Amino acid sequence: DAGVTQSPTHLIKTRGQQVTLRCSPKSGHDTVSWYQQALGQGPQFIFQYYEEEERQRGNFPDRFSGHQFPNYSSELNVNALLLGDSALYLCASRRDRGLNTEAFFGQGTRLTVV
Amino acid sequence: AQSVAQPEDQVNVAEGNPLTVKCTYSVSGNPYLFWYVQYPNRGLQFLLKYITGDNLVKGSYGFEAEFNKSQTSFHLKKPSALVSDSALYFCAVRDSLYNTDKLIFGTGTRLQVFP
Question: Which DSSP letter does residue A77 get?
Fold first, then answer.
C-alpha cells in the first residue's frame, strides 16, 4: 500500500505565477482534503473533495481551487501566487465512513514563492 | 469557536523518563480528537484518536492519550521516552456538531528527548 502520495516534493515559483499540486489518496480512500502549513504553524484546512465536488472550504481566497478526478486523485491550484503562499501543502485522505475515521497525510509539497 | 491549544512550544525529557505533551480543545459538539507526529521534511503521521468510550486510548509506538471532558484536555503520554521520539507533535480536533471533515490543529509541540 503506497499510502498518500504527493507531487512534486519541492517547487519554486515566482510571484504572480500559477501552480498545480497533485495528490493520490491511500488505496480505498474516497475523500481528499488539502491543508497549508506555514513555517512554525499547524496545518490550516483549505478544502475537502468528495465525489468530485468541493464539499467544504476553509478561510482561503478564491485563488485557491481544486479538483477531484473519478479515481479519487486530486489537484490543488493556486493562481496569482503571493510570497505569503510559501508553505508546505499537505494532502490528506480518508474513507468516508463517518467523522470518526482518521485522515492519512502525504509527505507534502514544499512551495517557495520568490 | 473551535480551537486547539498546545501550551508548550517545546518539551525536553531524558531518555527513559515519562513524557507528557499537553493539549486542550474547544468545540461546540462532541470532540473527535487526534494526535499526529511530524518528522523533519515529512508529512503528518497518525498516532492515535479518541472518538468515544474509554478515556485512555492507546496508539502507535507506545504512545497513549488521556481524554478529560471536564478539563477539555487530551494529553499525549508515554511511560518511557526514546531518543527516536524526538519530533513535532500536533493535536487536532474535529467537531461532531458541524458534520465536517475539517481538522483544527494546534500550533505543535517540539519534543526533544536527550540521551
Answer: E
